[in-house]
């Protein structure tokens, strides 16, 4: 059992460090993080970007020095809230992008990858996030078998919100961009597009014709996978 637990832990750590370091490098290359975070050595290793998630993960070792349940609960709550904020930003950006595409009178055939559930799926996702967040906050601030409101639990749930606000303010000050929400008319929907647009439309049309010729089971599989 110990071997299974160790293998699972190493697998999670390896995946998390790999994904986090590459995300940090990408942010650095786009100008959203310090340039030093994008440093890559001669062997292709992002050393600085690797150090940051490793140092953050080292915080879990404090559980061995202090109250284990307290430390793990704090780390778990921080992870939960950050995941909710991340997915909310993804869904919100997708909604804004689709509305900007409609405002510009552009066709969905210009997009090679489209969400399977479309715009409705993003709206449902946002609603579910709000519902789940509300239930999570309520059960955390008013735990079962407790006398009432828990101050420590309240802090654990909302501690990430001030950090997120600080990060946004630092970005606004550094880039001198005070816009909270970009207008639909100002959203750039063409930067980063690769290849000829007409050629892309032909490829999409060929894939649609190919799917029509296949069975319902295969179309169902391609819809979700």
Describe this protein with a few key phrases:
225 residues; mainly alpha; 8 helices; globular
Summarize the structure in words:
It is a single chain. This protein is mostly helical. The protein has three domains: 1-65, no CATH class; 66-188; 196-225, no CATH class. It contains eight helices and no strands. The chain has helices at 2-29, 47-58, 68-103, 118-141, 151-158, 160-175, 197-212, 216-224. α1 crosses α2 and α3 packs antiparallel against α4. The longest helix has 36 residues, at 68-103. The model has no long low-confidence stretch (mean pLDDT 80).
> What share of the residues does DSSP label as strand, in percent?
under 5%
Secondary-structure element pattern, one letter each? HHHHHHHH
Shape: globular
**Count of extended strands:** 0
> Radius of gyration, Cα only, in angstroms?
22 Å
Number of domains: 3
How far apart are the termini?
A: 34 Å
Number of helices: 8
Instruction: Please identify the structural class as seen in this structure.
Output: mainly alpha
Low-confidence stretches: none
Helical fraction: 55-70%
How would you characterize the largest beta sheet?
none
Mean of residue pLDDT values: 80
Summarize the structure.
Helices cover 66% and strands 0% of the residues.
Question: How are the SSEs placed, and which strands pair?
Answer:
Blueprint: H1 2-29, H2 47-58, H3 68-103, H4 118-141, H5 151-158, H6 160-175, H7 197-212, H8 216-224
Helix pairs in contact: 1-2, 3-4
